[in-house]
Structure formats: C-alpha cells, structure tokens
Amino acid sequence: MGLRLLSFGLVAGLALSGARAGAPGNPIIGTWKLNVAKSTFTPGPGWRSQTRTYRLAPGGGVIVDWVGVGGHGEPMRVRFESKTDGKDYPMKGSANYDTLNAVRVDALTVKSEEKRGGKVVGIAIRKVSPDGKVMTITDDGTNRKGEKFSQVLVFERQ
Fold first, then answer.
1. Cα–Cα distance between 116 and 97 in angstroms, integer?
2. Domains of the chain by residue range
3. Range 2-157 has CATH code 3.40.50.300
C-alpha cells in the first residue's frame, strides 16, 4: 500500500505545467505541501506527509523532487525530470513506476502515463487552481503487487 501511495506521489509529481508564483507561463514552479485531511486514498492508509518541489530544468522541462512519509511510516523520496512532450522519462525512487510521460491538457492541467516495464499501469492528472494556490493530483493505477488504487492528492502552495 505504501508503495502504491509512493507511486501515486510520483505520478502526481508528473509535473510540468503552467505559471503563477514561479516562472512565467509555468504555474507549477514552487514548493507544495500535501493537505492530508483534504486528500483521499482508496484503499487507505494514505500518505502521512508529502512535500513536492518543482523547478525549471536546464533546456526546458521541470525537475520534480518530493519527500514524504507513506501510510505505514515508510520514508519516501522521488525525483524525476520531464517535459510535456509525451516521451517517457525515468523516475528515481518510485515504488511503483519506472517511467512517466506527460502532455499538457491546458495551461493549468497535465496528464501523465505511469509505466512499469514499458506498460502503462497508472494515469495521473495534475491541475493547478486558477489562483495558483492549490494543486490537485488524481491518480489511478496498479501497484507492483497488482493491487488497484485511486488517490486524490490536494497540495497547497508554500
């Protein structure tokens, strides 16, 4: 279960979209803290904590770093760099995914496919609110144990 949550976080991290309080045109840039009380995890338990940092990568794209504590108290750290070009990028530290790819849906929304062994095993949608204060990641997939999960992670800009 912790692995499932970890992977979601990764996916959730699928980072790469738009602008407010960060780089012009990219609202995701900055630090985001998970609001556990507003988030949902099926099945539970969910993340105890998670903080994500999104920054611009040299040459375009976004670098995503996140740390957190899973539902069973396990520490997690994930890092990846990606662009919204639909190409697969490696994820370091993910319990459930090897790679992810992302495409921009609109100025505030990015959709990502999470893969394991080249096969899509999860889909994540990351959306930043119009005021740039809240980021919501919806992630549905299957963990390495073959268990299905669904999460809605609500983050607040720090």
1. 5
2. 2-157
3. no
Is residue 90 within 8 A of residue 98, CB to CB? The reply is yes
For each successive 10 residues of the chain (158 residues), what is the average pLDDT?
A: 45 39 74 98 94 94 96 94 96 92 96 96 98 97 92 98
The set of residues, in sequence order, having a beta carbon less than 8 Å from that of 24 and lying 6+ positions away, is none
Contact 97, 7 (CB under 8 A): yes
Give one word for 131, left, alpha or beta, with left for phi > 0 and alpha for psi -120 to 50: alpha
CB–CB of 64/15 below 8 Å? yes
> Which residues, 6+ apart, have CB-to-CB distance to 47 below 8 Å?
5, 9, 34, 36, 39, 41, 68, 69, 70, 71, 153
Burial 22-40 (b: 16+ CB within 10 A, else e): bbeebbbbbbbebeeeebe
Q: Return d(Cα 41, Cα 19) in angstroms, integer.
A: 28
Torsion of CA 67, 71, 75, 79, to 10 degrees: -40
